Amino acid sequence: MNILIVEDEIGILNFLQQGLEEEGFTITTAINGVEGLEKALHSSFDLILLDWMMPKMSGLEVCQNIRKQNTTVPILFLTAKDTVQETIDGLKAGANDYIKKPFSFEELLERIKIHFRKKEETTLQLGNITLNKNTFQVYVDQKEVSLTQREFELLAYLIENKGKVCTRNNIIEDVWDIHFEYDTGVIDVFMNAIRKKLNLSKNQDLIKTVRGVGYIAND
Questions:
Q1: 2-115 maps to which CATH number?
Q2: What are the residue boundaries of the Response regulatory domain, all occurrences included (predicted)?
Q3: How many Å apart are CA 128 and CA 143, to the nearest integer?
């Protein structure tokens, strides 16, 4: 698996590179945002580790620019930022996960492995919405719609659980893979984005809001 590490602190960069190479990963590095964006857009990576605060271009800007190119490569932020709003900003920019500095290498490795779990090749259907888990493509009436990877994962989860109420806590645990107290309000941000892109109203039958609980998908 090929990983791009974008980190301006050389000590952390070298530590991560050595540790991940020992685990069998192929590592490419960049020491600022501009260099990181260039490498991300001109080479193929299975995952990107991205520092938030960097010279020339912030990690947030790098993430936003990567997602403008319609790529679904998983992006994990390495950051000292940990407020709810900053977390939301990172997720809305297209990040899949974040790990707070300082962190243990073992924790980071487990987070990386989660994103490398092989996805079963399958096509999911919800009304006029078709979702291919293998190619990360979504179609509405055979017209392709671009979703971020987190939006894609959330939509897939709801479709896979058609007819069942998916609580916000279950979504945070099963989609975000977060198993501690967390602000579930970020889910609503992603659902609003999904509905807008799929042209769904809040009360449309395909995906309904269960007030105070979560969401349910139905044909």
A1: 3.40.50.2300
A2: 2-116
A3: 10
Percent pLDDT > 70 in the chain is: 92
Mean pLDDT lowest among 102-116, 136-150, 165-179, 190-204: 190-204
Q: Angle 164-165-169 (CA atoms, 0-180°, nearest 5)?
A: 130
Give every CB contact of residue 205 below 8 A, 6+ residues apart in sequence: 127, 218
What CATH number was assigned to the domain covering residues 123-217?
1.10.10.10
Give the Å distances, CA to CA, from 213 to 62, 126, 165, 167.
Answer: 34, 21, 8, 5
Instruction: Write out pLDDT tens, residues 55-75.
Output: 889 989 999 999 887 567 889
Tens of pLDDT, residues 93-112? 888 888 888 889 999 998 88
Identify the three-state secondary structure at position 183. coil
Residue that is written with structure tokens 């590095």 in the block: 29
Beta strand residue intervals within the chain, DSSP E:
2-6, 26-30, 47-51, 75-79, 97-100, 123-126, 129-132, 137-140, 143-145, 165-167, 207-210, 214-217
Q: Which of 173, 202, 43 is nearest to 6 (CA)?
A: 43
CATH 3.40.50.2300 domain range(s) in the chain: 2-115
Residue 62 CA to residue 6 CA, distance in Å, equals 10
